[in-house]
Amino acid sequence: VETTTVHQHPAGEQHHVDHSGHGHHPMQQHHFTGMEEQYTASSFGMWVFLVQEIMFFGGLFCAYLVYRNNYPNAFGLASNALRVDLGLFNTIVLIGSSLTMALAVNAAQRSLRGRLIVMLFATMGLGSIFLGVKVIEYSEKFEKREVPGANFCYNPIGTPCRGVSHAPESTLHIIKRYASGGFGQQPAEHGAATEPVARPEHAAPASGPERREDLGQTNRLPVANEASERARSMPGSEIYYSLYFAMTGMHALHMIVGIGLMVWLLYWALKGLYSAEYFTPIENFGLYWHFVDIVWIFLFPLLYLINRHIGEGH
Amino acid sequence: MSAHAHEHAIRNYVIIFGVLMIGTLLTVWAAFQDFGIMNPIIALTIAVIKAVCVVLVFMHVWDSSRLTKITVAAGIFWLGIFIVLLMSDYISRPWS
User: What pTM value is reported for the model?
Assistant: First the structure.
């Protein structure tokens, strides 16, 4: 029966032709002897991929280790400039998302379609909250000139950095200002020779009631000073922030990819593809999500909690 | 697995979630105490315990095949080689 069915449809997807007469699960691929072997192969493949991920993040952690040894004070001070409340909140959110992911896999193993869908939604939601908090944290770093680059300035012990605004601003506004070199220019002191650089927000009216002209008047200093300000930054602090953005950025990228994959899993879960006989994609995605959680378990103490007992004011 | 075994698994997940929460709060608390040179060691020890909990229970390695266990162990072993060889190089460079 099986061979005749196959020969009738030589060009089509032969293994989907006749499930009842075919003798195996519709999701079994023909080069496996059974679902068990297919599951073992998929699981092994996923773990080999995760081992590669360990080595990938391991490279970043090794760079961190070397530079933290080289600049222990700068790392300690710059770490205190991060917001431990947001870091702690995000850690709790991410561990919560690992729990909902474990429950999603559990639901798939038991063919509980409704619960699987709810748990996938919960995991996506918690992952999105994490990324939203990350946006708040990153925008604060742009605001305080703590993003590596031409405008970088981190000097908690000596002269404070200029142009650091404490007024609430939109994330996009801060990034635009940072990109256009709008920090620390002050025409009042230096006359027409240092006409302020045209800033993007001047083209359009400010969105809020508080227009940003006042900021432009008080916080502008010559552009030439910015390089020297950057040079006066605490040695090693820019390396700390480079590693902070590289490590948390790579971690966030993994989460964005994960949320994208969950959209795909949700689509098939809604179609009822996953059951006790076939739940490998859910299981393997769960492994990926938990791995990303583990990376954060290490990132949180290593980036946020250095020398907290000493603080930034010393 | 039976329905009973699945319910048992859920109980384990909730317990591990609680352990991870306690570990997280403990990490933050310990970071604000002055343990001298032990501060980073305590932070990393708690992180390793949390990671082992996730790997064994959430990622099912405790109940997995020997192949999976060897694969995970190999990954951690290679990370160890990475760190040990790298640091033995860097900490033995008096000129840098």
Answer: 0.81
pLDDT one-digit tens code per residue, A48-107: 999 999 999 999 999 999 999 999 999 999 999 999 999 999 999 999 999 999 999 999
ipTM over cut 0.90: yes
Q: Cβ of B17 under 8 Å from any chain A Cβ?
A: yes
**Residues of chain B contacting A96 with CB distance shorter than 8 Å:** 17
Is the Cβ–Cβ distance between A151 and A145 less than 8 Å? yes
Cβ distance B13 to A106 less than 8 Å, yes or no, reads yes
B43, B59, B67 member nearest A305 (Cβ)? B43
d(CA A92, CA A39): 32
**Is A102 in contact with A282 (CB distance < 8 Å)?**
no
Contacts of A294 in chain B (CB under 8 A): 50-51, 54-55
Closest Cα in chain A, distance from residue B89 (Å): 10
Residue-wise pLDDT tens digits, A158-185: 777 776 655 556 667 767 766 776 655 4
- The one-letter amino acid code at A180 reads S
Residues of A in contact with B67 (CB under 8 A): 40, 44
